[in-house]
Specification:
five-stranded antiparallel β-sheet, 16 strands
Length: 474
């Protein structure tokens, strides 16, 4: 089935030409109300991104994603492998939260909060404008022969891009291995820690490739989020949209002429200046409707408002709105789908908060030694051998730790010189212990025994063990 003429743009990507080669995008430098707001949001988020791995709360790095050692810190809360279910719930909440906002407000995350967009538009692109100039100057520079001016500008730009990519790689690595470890490795020198230095070079190369060459292709080709729009958006979703009813009128668009009554001639308010296309960082024409390439960056809103102001027409030809608002003047509705997402979010957040409140700073695991049966001691005492592992999730050393059988039905003896031990900060204490219980206090061959873990007499965790005794009690 042949694509209609007005939908031909959907058969191709704006950054690929008819020959299948890369069509380089030269966006005009944006300006306006939304751009100023985006700059504020972007620089706050950049400050947070660069500072987060170096902020400590109770000795814990604010954000840490150490996949190799399976250690995670989220907002200062340490998560160990035993807490992986909490990490999974947190990630699910994040996905549903982004989905909720996409259904309600389109790709607002992409335009305002995505690190790719923030770095590209608020860091690398602004440096490019500073060195090479605006859209027209960049196009002319690209077509220009490799003379002294072009070499100077390109080398300066590429050098700065490389330095920034190196800085981003360091911060990225701080999230993965920890800021303290990164700083120590830097102080020791790169060749003493090749396991840190080589990934640093790889990340630098990746970030340089993305921001110096791949650019908007990340959003269009690599990121799956744009494809999700077709599933998540509906006619109630608020997004950056062109008011085609106002813009096209009865007879379509027309170039602006002074003292011309456009309404009487049946033409819309769009003067076909193409400024909304020139300012777009992904090279699309917003007038074609919702497209996967659109990241809702609002650059076209600012540019169109500026043009409307110059030709004395009302602003808002391109604005945050919904298809329902444009077509039927309907107000935003809290749809059943949004209500469903809200309910799921509330439930999951409640579950996560409850689990965090019930989560202990110490986690005890006591397991019976494999292949070992019970032993009969003097005075009808039954003994089992166990191994223990205690994980300290805090940044403080826990001292004077002892085990105690609940209801005092038996005793615990460590295979050590003392029955007290220490759990190092953010560390593990492990060893072997004996549990001895008089035969008369056992009810069957298999008994569930509750063991309390105490520090300085204070209960810090409880665990249950399977204690084996004689099957006959006659």
């Amino acid at each position: 089935m042949e694509t209609p003429a007005n939908e031909k743009f959907r058969d191709s990507i704006g950054t690929i030409n008819e020959e299948g080669k890369r069509a380089w995008v030269y966006p005009k430098k944006p300006s306006g109300k939304y751009y100023e707001w985006r700059k504020i949001v972007s620089y706050v988020l950049l400050a947070f991104l660069f500072a987060a791995p170096f902020i400590k709360i109770n000795g814990n790095q604010f954000l840490l994603f150490n996949v190799l050692e399976r250690r995670f810190n989220i907002f200062g809360f340490p998560f160990w492998p035993q807490d992986f279910h909490l990490v999974v719930i947190s990630m699910i909440i994040g996905v549903i939260f982004i989905t909720f906002f996409t259904v309600a407000f389109g790709r607002i995350f992409c335009g305002w909060m995505c690190p790719q967009t923030i770095f590209m538009e608020m860091v690398f692109r602004r440096i490019e404008y500073w060195i090479e100039g605006d859209r027209g100057k960049q196009i002319r520079l690209d077509k220009q022969a490799w003379n002294a001016e072009k070499i100077k500008k390109r080398l300066l730009k590429w050098s700065i891009f490389l330095l920034i990519s190196f800085a981003i790689a360091n911060v990225f690595l701080a999230y993965l291995i920890g800021s303290d470890q990164l700083i120590q490795d830097i102080l020791d020198g790169p060749f003493k820690h090749l396991g840190t230095f080589l990934p640093l070079l790889i990340f630098t190369a990746v970030f340089y490739f993305v921001f110096a060459w791949f650019r908007e292709q990340v959003c269009i080709i690599a990121c799956p989020y744009g494809r999700l729009q077709g599933v998540l958006l509906d006619n109630q979703s608020i997004l950056v949209a062109y008011d085609h009813k106002r813009g096209e009128g009865e007879n379509g668009r027309k170039k602006f002429r002074k003292n011309e009554d456009r309404a009487e001639l049946g033409f819309g308010d769009c003067i076909d200046c193409l400024q909304c296309v020139h300012v777009c960082p992904t090279g699309i024409d917003i007038r074609n409707g919702t497209q996967l390439e659109c990241v809702n960056c609002t650059a076209c809103i600012d540019e169109c408002d500026s043009i409307m102001e110059k030709v004395n027409l009302p602003k808002g030809l391109i604005r945050y709105t919904s298809e329902a608002k444009i077509e039927k003047k309907e107000k935003f509705k809290f749809t059943p789908r949004l209500k469903g997402y809200t309910a799921v979010l509330v439930i999951l957040i409640g579950v996560l908060i409850g689990m965090l409140l019930l989560r202990n700073d110490v986690e005890a695991n006591i397991l019976r030694l494999r292949g070992q049966l019970y032993e009969m001691q003097e005075n009808n005492i039954v003994r089992n051998v166990f191994t223990y592992k205690l994980i300290n999730k805090t940044t403080d050393e826990i001292t004077n730790v002892v085990f105690k059988i609940r209801k005092d039905i038996g005793t615990v003896k460590l295979v050590s010189t003392s029955n007290e031990f220490v759990i190092p900060k953010q560390g593990i204490a492990e060893g072997t212990l004996f549990i001895e219980i008089p035969k008369g206090k056992l009810k069957s061959g298999k008994n569930n025994i509750t063991v309390e873990v105490l520090s300085k007499g204070k209960l810090i965790d409880i665990t249950t063990v399977n204690f084996i005794g004689p099957t006959s009690y006659n």
